[in-house]
């Protein structure tokens, strides 16, 4: 059996203060979560893809590349990469490069996405 975790990197207000973290602070927290998962022996960590201001995960391949430099063994995957909003060749190349940077630990999951309000950003009717 394998154990995996995924994150949508949502930017939510702190329960104690009601103040949301900055996007940079949320990203630092996410990278720390991936490092902790690696040290704890988790097998895979996935990052979602969202193109909204309340999420910090617009580019899973870039986030996972940053995580690759801070981890040793955990597999790194998108969960999911929105194929309808991507150039499929560029997406493949980004994850092929991530696979090189991570010494073979990259995986990709593709899907159509569920937040249609982001479609206009990519010229999708």
Question: What this model shows, in words?
Answer:
The chain has helices spanning 23-40, 60-68, 88-101, and strands spanning 4-7, 44-47, 75-78, 81-82, 106-107, 110-111. The protein is of the alpha/beta class and 125 residues long. The strands form two sheets. A four-stranded parallel sheet has the order 1-2-3-5. A two-stranded parallel ribbon has the order 4-6. The chain has a domain at 76-113. Helix 2 links the parallel strand 2 (44-47) and strand 3 (75-78). Helix 2 (60-68) packs parallel to helix 3 (88-101). Helix content is 33%, strand content 14%.
Which key terms come to mind for this protein?
single chain, 125 residues, alpha/beta, 4-stranded parallel sheet, two-stranded parallel sheet, 3 helices, 14% strand, globular
Q: How would you summarize what this structure contains?
A:
The chain is of the alpha/beta class.
Low-pLDDT stretches: none
Radius of gyration: 15 Å
Number of strands: 6
What proportion of the residues form beta strands (DSSP E)? 5-15%
Shape: globular
Major sheet summary line: 4 strands, parallel
Q: Can you write the helix and strand succession as a string? A: EHEHEEHEE
Mean pLDDT: 94
Determine the number of helices (DSSP H or I, runs of at least 4 residues): 3
- Strands in their spatial order, largest beta sheet: 1-2-3-5
Chart the SSEs and their pairings.
Blueprint: E1 4-7, H1 23-40, E2 44-47, H2 60-68, E3 75-78, E4 81-82, H3 88-101, E5 106-107, E6 110-111
Parallel strand pairs: 1-2, 2-3, 3-5, 4-6
Helix pairs in contact: 2-3
